[in-house]
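Lab notebook: predicted structure, single chain.

Context: the supervisor wants predicted structures on file for every construct in the current expression panel, including those that have not yet been purified. This is the next one on the list. No modifications to the sequence; it matches the entry in the shared construct table.
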Amino acid sequence: LVITHYQRILNYVKPDHVHILVDGRIVMSGGPELALQLEEKGYDWVRE
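Prediction complete. Output recorded below exactly as produced.
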């Protein structure tokens, strides 16, 4: 289990699953591509 705000660490640790938490709840789950979307778009689109 790795919890991070930095997508760059995922260049070294390859995830099988990515979960996004907002206010302590999982609001979105996906594969490694989800971490790349967060890096590109930020977090605002997740909260909508």
